[in-house]
Each structure stands twice: as C-alpha cells, then as structure tokens.
Write a structure and sequence with these properties.
This protein has 556 residues and is an alpha/beta fold. It is 25% helix and 21% strand. Strands 1, 2, 12, 16, 17, 18, 19, 20, 21 and 22 form a ten-stranded mixed beta sheet that branches.
C-alpha cells in the first residue's frame, strides 16, 4: 500500500493525465436522474420505515422496495435460492474453553504462556492453528502518524511478530484526536503491512475485534435462560484470524530478557509517555497456538439484498465488479422526553438539535443516499449498454452495528469471491462535508490506491470523463487520518480479503447519526454527479481486460 497516499496520488494524477487521455462519458450515465433518486431516497428515509434499524420491520420494508424495483428493471436475483435476499446470520458465541498459548524461546530458554494466565487471546481467535515466527520486531508505540511527527512503522513488517507498548502514545500525542488511530493500529499492522502477529500490553478489547460486539447481550426470550455471549459476529469462526495477544509484565520481562533494552526501562518510558526506541529482538522465536472451543448461544437474522447484471463478454462475464451500500440505519427512540426537552438517542445515534417530538433517525444521507445511488446504478447497467464483466450489487444490512452484512457476504459470497475484481462502496454521498458550500464539487476517495494504484488511475480517468469533473479529495485516505475511515465501513470487509476497493463519500456533518439527517437536506444534483462517477468507474473496470494490478507491497 501507499505509505504517503496524498503525495503518491498527486504523482499518479500527473502520470495519468500524461498517459491516459480523458474519454467521453458512457451513454448509460444519462439514466441517472435526480427525480428518480429523490423518489427512492424519500421512501427509504421516510418516517414509515422508522429509521431502518437492523432486525426491524422498517428494514424489511426497505428490502422489499429495492427488490421490487430490481425485478422491474430486469436485474437478476443473486441471493439465496434464486431470491434477491441473502439471510445474514448474526451469532452470539461463548468461548467454552481455551487451550491457546504462546511459546517464547529466548536464546536457549523456552517458556510457555497460556491464555488466561500471563497472556490473553481475543475471545474470538478464529480457527485452530499453530505457527512459529522467527522475526520479532519492537516498534515503540506502533503508530504511523506523519502529521504528528510520529512514524514507528517505517520498515517492512511482513511475516514478523510486532510488539508495542503505551496505549496512549507519547507525550504531546493528541489521544482524543487520534483515538481511532490507536484503536485500529492492530489492523494496519496485520492486514495492511502483513505482520504475522501483534503483541500488546493488557488493556481493553483490541482493535482487531472492532467489528464484533464484545459486551454481553441478553439471552433469547424463549426457553430457558442461556449464557450471555462472549462475542457476537457474522463472520465464520472456522477461518483463521490475524493473531493477536496481550501480555503481562512477566511475559514481557522474559520476552525482552536478551533485548538491547530491558522491559522495566521500556515500561517506565511508555508509562511516562517518553520516546521509545525500535529494534529487532534477535534470537527470539514465538510459536502461537490457537485452540479454542466455541458454543453458539444466540442467533439473529437479517438480510442483504443482492442482484446481478450479467456482462456481455463470454470470457469475462464470470468475473464481477461489485458495488455496495448499507441500507440500514440506527432506528428510533421510543423513550419519553427528557428534562431538557430532548429524547434519548437510539443505539449508535446522537441527540440532535431537532424537535423533541422527532423520534425517528431517518438516515437520509447515512445511507439512504448510497442506497438510492446503488438503485440508480443497477438500473443504468440493466437498461443501458452492457459492459464485458458482470456487475454485482449488494445492499448490506447491519453496517451500523458491526458491518454484519458485508462481513457475512465475503465469507458466504453468492458468487465466487475470488472472481470479484474490485468493490466500489458508497456511504453518505448526498451532502457537503460539514455543510460547507465550498465543498459543493468535492467527493472523498478512500482506499483507491491502497491495494491497487491502477484502480485509482481508473477512477481518475472516469472523473475526467464527467462534464465538469468532480474534485477528488484524498485527505481521508491518509494512514494518519484521525477518523480512520478506511477501516470503518463495508468496503473494508472486501479489502481484508485482498479485493481492491474504493470508498466514495462526501463526508460527515452535524446531522450524522441524529434525527435531523433528513431528506430535505440532500443535495440531489450533487448526488447525481457522485453516482455518475461511481458508474463511470464501474464501466471502466467492467471493460478492463484484466483485474486491477495489485501493488507490490500488497502481493502475498
């Protein structure tokens, strides 16, 4: 992946302008119309759907609405058993027993550290497996934030066990601003930089479980009470996960016993938020044994909506360009008015500045805008010229409570997952960031060059075909982006499988996750233009005679 996305993208843009001349927009883009988007979005974000909470009747109504239109447009069903719906199983598990351990060899001495004693594994550690790592790297605070003059990860970490200390970062590091950077450094190391394992001090639940519910939830209402789950997930638990472990002081003391710096001194520096060194622990090997038994104690069901427009080329139609948006939102508040005149927010919602009797979080921008854009794309491809590859459309459920729909889809794809050449995700594309009028022409691209720089060039070429083109902003694509948007929507479920992605968004605003995110604030002309950019990018991908070339660093 790009180590300096903004700078590299600037160079790539100049290269693309010189090598890839702008091409005209595709005829199908004329089928993307403001009036249609307004009609569809107004229904999806209407009060009658009560905020489209996962597992709610409102979300079911939204699914049926999308289904009806896909059927009318001739989009083929690609869900379960010839339908448009894919059932998503969200399961709560209890970790019945853990025999997981870390065996550390330092010089000629070996010690075994068992889960629950001097080390702690995640409750969901994935499939049973054992592997040995003979390269162990200490990376200080484990952060990569050039904007804060803090770069600990400026080396090749592929295949290494990576260790850091200091949950809050060094002195002067804005922990509040970069809270998501701290939370997601696990994923950055194991999934972006291909580290073999991560080792950190014992703290709260780790970042690589951020898409799972860790806190206990109530048992089902029927039958005898059952134990509360240790974690809730839509992912397969029989597949390997990135290895992650937290260690006690005794564990670290042995691990660093032959190191250039002793653990006591490193811990003192980390606790005092002083600068930390970085070095390899020579002569150290670590064997991770993951062996846990799980019991399912609770299951809930929701649905993805899935359709396909088949490609025209006999050779390429068995490969796919995937498009995604989440059609759920956070629901509504049925609680009484509080003393300050507001109502409590629903889960994942915030109390906004709207009327006290407005209890529905409509989610017009988040993500009825993306849902409607996807409908426009599906119709344009179904009724316009057919490109060579097939087009896969997935309206994901449960994004707001853990990306459940996309995580389930990539583990239970209704088409061969290895035949998806790219995924284009659309989330919040109907407004200006912070309602700033100077952003009227701006769309943010995230992840477009992280797995395949060629994909980014394709999107730039697509943008130049528009009249006028949009302003492409890559601020949120930087690894040091405080919001860490790259890891926080459905596209990342695909990226974690190695599929090149682009996340299209126009940014957050004051109505994000409040009852005031309403249809009246949607900029439909802008929504048309952003949808056209996604369409044009999809056309070029679908007619490309090869899959987007992966970056060298992201090639196994």
């Amino acid at each position: 992946m790009s180590r300096r996305p903004v700078a590299i993208c600037t160079i790539a843009a100049l290269f693309a302008l010189a090598i890839f001349p702008a091409t005209a927009a595709s005829p199908g883009v004329s089928l993307i119309r403001s009036a249609d988007l307004r009609e569809w979005l107004s229904y999806i974000a209407s009060d009658g759907l009560a905020g489209r909470a996962t597992y709610s009747t409102g979300l079911g109504l939204a699914a049926a609405y999308i289904e009806d239109r896909l059927r009318a447009w001739g989009v083929k069903p690609a869900g379960d058993a010839g339908s448009y719906l894919q059932t998503v199983r969200v399961v709560g598990y209890r970790t019945v027993q853990s025999r997981s351990s870390v065996t550390v060899r330092v010089g000629g001495e070996t010690r075994v550290f068992r889960d629950g004693e001097d080390v702690t594994f995640p409750k969901n550690a994935g499939a049973k497996r054992s592997f040995t790592v003979d390269r162990v790297e200490f990376v200080g605070y484990g952060l990569d934030v050039p904007a804060a003059n803090l770069v600990d990860l400026d080396k090749d970490l592929a295949g290494a066990a990576v260790i850091w200390l200091g949950p809050n970062g060094p002195s002067g590091f804005d922990r509040q601003l970069y809270r998501n950077v701290l939370s997601y450094r696990d994923r950055h190391v194991t999934e972006d930089l291909r580290g073999a394992a991560i080792v950190g001090p014992m703290t709260a639940p780790r970042g690589n479980n951020a898409q799972e519910t860790q806190a206990p939830v109530p048992a089902g209402q029927r039958g005898a009470p059952r134990p509360a789950p240790d974690f809730t997930t839509s992912r397969r638990i029989d597949l390997p996960r990135s290895a992650s472990v937290q260690g006690s002081d005794a564990f670290y003391a042995f691990l660093f016993s032959k190191a250039p710096a002793q653990y006591d001194e490193l811990k003192r520096r980390a606790d005092g938020q002083e600068p930390l060194p970085a070095f390899r622990l020579d002569g150290v090997t670590m064997t991770f044994t993951i062996d846990q038994d799980y019991e399912a104690v609770r299951t809930e069901l929701t649905q993805n909506v899935v359709g396909i427009v088949e490609g025209s080329d006999p050779r390429l139609r068995s490969t796919y360009v995937a498009f995604g948006a989440h059609y759920d939102h956070v629901g509504y508040s049925g609680q009484p008015v509080a003393a300050d005149g507001t109502r409590p927010a629903p889960p994942n919602g915030r109390v906004g500045s709207g009327p006290a009797d407005d209890i529905i979080w409509n989610g017009a921008d988040d993500d009825a805008s993306g849902t409607a854009a996807m409908m426009a794309l599906a119709r344009a491809f179904a009724q316009g010229p057919r490109p060579k590859r097939s087009l896969l459309f997935v309206w994901h459920a449960g994004e707001e409570i853990g990306a459940y729909g996309s995580l389930y889809f990539v583990d239970h794809s209704t088409v061969p997952i290895e035949r998806i050449v790219a995924q284009l995700n659309i989330d919040m594309v109907g407004r200006n960031r912070n309602d700033d009028p100077t952003e009227a022409n701006t769309v943010y691209l995230v992840g477009s060059d992280r797995i395949s720089a060629e994909l980014d060039q394709i999107s730039r070429d697509a943008n130049r075909s528009l009249s006028p083109p949009l302003t492409l902003d890559y601020e949120m694509n930087a690894q040091s982006d405080p919001e860490q948007i790259y890891y926080r929507s459905d596209h990342y479920s695909y990226a974690a499988k190695g599929i090149p992605i682009i996340f299209f968004t126009t940014g957050l605003h004051a109505d994000y996750h409040t009852s005031t995110d309403e249809v009246s604030k949607i900029l439909f002309d802008k929504l048309v233009r952003v949808t056209a950019l996604v369409y044009e990018t999809g056309v070029r991908l679908a007619n490309l005679d090869h899959a987007p070339v992966p970056n060298v660093r992201n090639t196994p």
